[in-house]
Amino acid sequence: MTLSERKHATEYTEEAYLVFEELDTRVTRIFEDVKAWRGWRLISAGNTPKQEIMALVREIFRSVVWYQAHTTEAGFHMFGRLPKKDVRLIQQLSSHKAEEAEHGVWAQEDHAKSGGSATDRSIPPSPATFAVAAVWWRMAQVEEPLGYLGAEYLFEQLTALVTQAALPIIEGRDLPRESLRFVIEHATEDAKHAVFLKHLILDVVTRYPGSGDAMLRCFDYFHAVYPLPVWDEAYERAVGGLG
Ligand SMILES: [Fe+2]
Ligand SMILES: [Fe+2]
């Protein structure tokens, strides 16, 4: 392959850039909603007692434990339905999802280290985390499987933004790092994962024109239940526990 052929092969279409920019703009908007949310205000206010911050974070970890295994299994199912000739794409998505598989365990460990009960997994899931699992399984079964990339971009890019914004708070308030592995490791991991997904989205929309519609649709389905429905439930549990 000549240099110019190679350059051409890595070029993405205008449509692909438009789809990616739309997904990215939506995540940025959702991050603004998160920063205006009462839970983020509690975490970021300089005078919130540390135990109140950790009570909320602990409840968010509990939420992750409730949905994460289900969203992981649904994800494998969804991209398992991709066109079978697209071996490279299936390999890339499988490899990424395999890396993600144990992150619910990180959340479980952080939850326990920050004082949560070890028996949480036996407790039925909260309504919003049940809804997250339900949306992911419904998408996995009936949606266009390329739509996976849109919903996954919301997961990865939002986690990157929120965990990066949390790092200076962990530092400034000297929060217990040993209970915050999930947050600290995601600040670097998910920045990388978001870039990985960006390139996949650009590549896939270039190769499958029109697939951006399913990506945007799946993004919106997932956003109907995540993040604030889940995190505000965690806030309610934390505030109830503090009272
Ligand atoms: Fe993760
Ligand atoms: Fe990730």
**Broad CATH class:** Mainly Alpha
* Ligand list: fe (ii) ion
Counted beta strands: 0
Number of domains: 1
Indicate the overall shape: globular
The oligomeric state is single chain
Q: Approximately how much beta-strand content do the residues carry? A: under 5%
Uncertain spans: none
**What name goes with the CATH superfamily?**
Heme oxygenase-like
Q: What is the annotated CATH architecture? A: Up-down Bundle
Mean pLDDT: 94
> What is the helix tally?
11
InterPro entries: Haem_Oase-like_multi-hlx (IPR016084)
Region (Disordered): 101-123
Pfam family, one: Haem_oxygenas_2
Biased composition (Basic and acidic residues): 101-113
Describe what this molecule looks like in 3D.
The chain has a single domain, classed as Heme Oxygenase, Chain A (Up-down Bundle), CATH 1.20.910. The longest helix is centred in the first third of the chain and has 30 residues, at about 50-80. It is mainly alpha-helical and about 240 residues long. Helices cover about 75% and strands about 0% of the residues. The structure holds fe (ii) ion (FE2) (2 copies).
